[in-house]
Amino acid sequence: MTVAFWCVLIAILLPFVCTGIAKFSGGQFGARQNHDPRAFLANLDGFAKRAHSAQMNSFEAFPAFAAAVIIADICHNAQQVTMDVLAVLFITSRLLYIICYLADWAMLRSLVWFVGLGLVVSLFCVSV
To answer: How far apart are CA 23 and CA 21, in angstroms?
Structure first.
């Protein structure tokens, strides 16, 4: 399996890291809240709410990244090392994005988000 494909797996798991942070950062999550976790997460505030928002954005960013990696792989026009580097950079941008979200660095978070989008576009462009 290629590094780029491993990055797809990491991208699948990143939202769940954010979920754990959102649920357990405030010490409020328990068996009772697990009956309706979406309602619990919707009512969070502060750090935990930002973690939940990072989770939601991670789920939103995943399909484009996965599609870009798969398309780049099946087109056979890009060198594997190029795809791997772009995929690792995307995961790095997502980790930075999550850190910026949790730290409430809104402007830097937006910049990092655009970098991630550019990396997804780059994966498509190397497929041509």
So the answer is: 6
* Residue whose pair of structure tokens reads 């950079």 in the numeric block: 89
**Fold of the 3-125 domain:** Four Helix Bundle (Hemerythrin (Met), subunit A) (1.20.120)
pTM listed for this prediction: 0.91
The pLDDT profile of the chain, 128 residues, written as one tens digit per residue, is: 999 999 999 999 999 999 888 888 766 655 555 667 777 778 788 998 999 999 999 999 999 999 999 999 999 888 999 999 999 999 999 999 999 999 999 999 999 999 999 999 999 999 88
Report the C-alpha gap between 50 and 88 in whole angstroms. 24
- The sign of the dihedral angle between the CA atoms of 60, 61, 66, 72 is positive
